[in-house]
Structures are given as C-alpha cells and as structure tokens.
Design a protein that fits this description.
With 218 residues, the chain is of the alpha+beta class. The chain folds into 2 domains: 73 residues, no CATH class; 126 residues, Cytidine Deaminase, domain 2 (3-Layer(aba) Sandwich), CATH 3.40.140.10. Helix content is 17%, strand content 36%. It has 4 helices and 13 strands. Strands 7-6-10-11-12-13 form a 6-stranded mixed sheet, with helices on one face. Strands 1-2-3-4-5 form a 5-stranded mixed sheet, with no helix packed on it. Strands 8-9 form a two-stranded antiparallel ribbon. Helix 3 links the parallel strand 10 and strand 11. Helix 2 packs across helix 4. The radius of gyration is 20 Å and the shape is elongated. The termini are far apart. The structure holds zinc ion. The site of zinc ion has 5 residues, from loops. InterPro entries: DUF2016, JAB_dom_prok, PRTRC_protein-A. It comes from Caballeronia pedi. Keywords: Hydrolase, Metal-binding, Metalloprotease, Protease, Zinc.
Length: 218
Amino acid sequence: MNAGGLNAGDAALQRSFPTVMVPRREPGPPMQSAGERLLIGENGVFIEIDLPWLSVVRRVAHYTVPTAIPYGRVVESTVLRCGTVPPELIGDFVAMARAAHPLETGAWIVWNVETKQFRLAPVRVLSQGTGTLKYERPELFAGELRVIDCHSHGAHPAFFSSTDDEDDRQETKFAFVVGNCASSVPSMAMRLCAKGIFEDVERVPSSWYAAAKLKEAA
Ligand SMILES: [Zn+2]
C-alpha cells in the first residue's frame, strides 16, 4: 500500500510495479492485472511477470547479509500459457530467412489471446544488410501478442550478439535466431528474455530442425 499523500507520479509508478511481502502460511495474493511486480521472500527478491501468454518468476537479487527475513519462500516458475508453438511456423520463418540470405530478416510469431491461434507476422524491414537489420514491429490484429521475436543471421551462425542483447534487454519474449541460412539444416539459437534476464534454451526442439530442413528438390 502506498503511504497517504504520495505524489501522483510515484503513486502511478508503484501501482504499475508493486512489491509484495510473500506470506509464510498461505499463498501470496494473485496479481490484479497483467504486468510485473516484485516479490520479497526469505530467499531473496524476485520479479514476477504475468502476461496472458506467459507467467515467469525469477530471482533478481540475493541478500548479502544472513539476516532473518520473516517472509515465505519464493519458488522460480515458468508457465507457457499459450501452449506449444507450431513447428510449421518455425519452418515458415526459416524459408523467409533462406529467401533473404545473405541479408538478415525478421518476423514475430504471435498468439491471439481470443482465438488461441499462432501466426507468423513478418516485420516491416527498414534496412537490411549481411550483419544488420532495422525494422518496425509488424502490424498486429486485436488480441495478438508477440511470443517469439525471430531474426536471421544470413551466412553467419545463430547466436545472440551484443546488439541483440541491447535490443532484448527491456522486453519479455522468446528471441530466436536462425543462422547459416544457406545450409540444408541451419543453425538455431533461442532464449527467454524477461526484463533483462536472458536464459538460453539449451536445446531447440528437434521438431523445429525437422520443420527447417530444406526439402530436397524433386
Ligand atoms: Zn542477431
């Protein structure tokens, strides 16, 4: 709760990003609406991000002093509310990446919260090179949310560059890169980006490689 008389600007900021003292003897209060909050637990400080397609809890700070904090334990969690992304859409993006090779390109895989359907939405490319891509976000229909931000690396391998880190720092999404785009089996890298937290996905699903495999010309 805000102290009475807090100025309007800080009051609005605190409403948009509240802090919860995690109870020991019962579950913490659910989030009132989509967004973010801090959870203070006995085992550290955590960020909780709750979106229609994703819920994530991650520790963002440890205590540096072994002092007793009379709150409950927080457990990190990930819930992919949108379900599994169809591998065919990865295949479709790889086809786009091959067509653009050796230039980079990009697209979003979006999920419609009303219809529960996924779709590949190409970005509006402003300029593209063999190591650069400038783009505008795709136009989305009502109810569509970005789940995976895809881009390609042309002839270069798939990895997350320092430019990618800079681009991804503020956002909550999966980031996906396709590289070696002329190869029949391109390289792929994926990570979860959650407000500055980057977690590499160790193994991209094998169904994605299958969907990306270049079909032999008949
Ligand atoms: Zn990149």
